Amino acid sequence: VQLQASGGGLVQVGGSVRLSCAASGRTFSSYTVGWFRQAPGKGREFLAFIAGRDGNTYYADSVKGRFTVSRDNAKNTVYLQMNSLKPEDTALYYCAADLLGHRTVVAGGYVYWGQGTQVTVSS
Question: Which CA distances in Å does 82 have to 63, 93, 99, 101?
Fold first, then answer.
């Protein structure tokens, strides 16, 4: 399984950006896909996940109400819509997949990771 995260860039405070995570695999619809981020000097932070077959979502408190995760199984792609961005949202953003459909906020629970896409929020 390969994951390709994209969509990052430079955005102003209060702006929006949509990240994409394109995945390979014939059973993509059953994968749980999580989004994480890592700022310089900090650990990897869980943001959200979207489950496979039922599409249930779960968010970290730090992004609830501002970020939305969705998926298009026909395109093997998961999205992270990020609104009302703040300088503290600046980080390298990763998507990760669990092929067995486990639902977890722990980075170690995900086996497959994308390469990360940088989001920089300027004030």
Answer: 9, 11, 25, 24
